[in-house]
């Protein structure tokens, strides 16, 4: 019977700790900024990764592909590696 009371007590202490986190107000601007930043990122990706139809064979490497492969892709691969450890 004592073990049951101890488990209930631990559960209540966990709820009290959770309630303390709820008292810290998060300004409304932060979720809106994150929402907007994510949407803008995906819109830029949609337009940035599309090919432009030209009359002849394309020559050379596109700048956006070079920029993506040198700057963004290694960061994403590193973050994916950390997620799956």
TrEMBL record:
Compartments, record wording: Cell membrane; Membrane
Transmembrane segments: 28-48
Transmembrane helix is among the record's keywords: yes
Tagged with keyword Membrane: yes
Superkingdom in the source lineage: Eukaryota
Pfam families in the cross-refs: Bestrophin (PF01062)
GO cellular component: chloride channel complex; plasma membrane
Membrane topology, record value: Multi-pass membrane protein
InterPro entries: Bestrophin, Bestrophin-like
Molecular function terms, GO-annotated: chloride channel activity
Keywords, in A-Z order: Cell membrane, Chloride, Chloride channel, Ion channel, Ion transport, Membrane, Transmembrane, Transmembrane helix, Transport
Signal sequence coordinates: none
Function statement: Forms chloride channels.
Protein family according to the UniProt entry: Belongs to the anion channel-forming bestrophin (TC 1.A.46) family. Calcium-sensitive chloride channel subfamily.
Protein name: Bestrophin homolog
Species in which this protein is naturally found: Angiostrongylus costaricensis
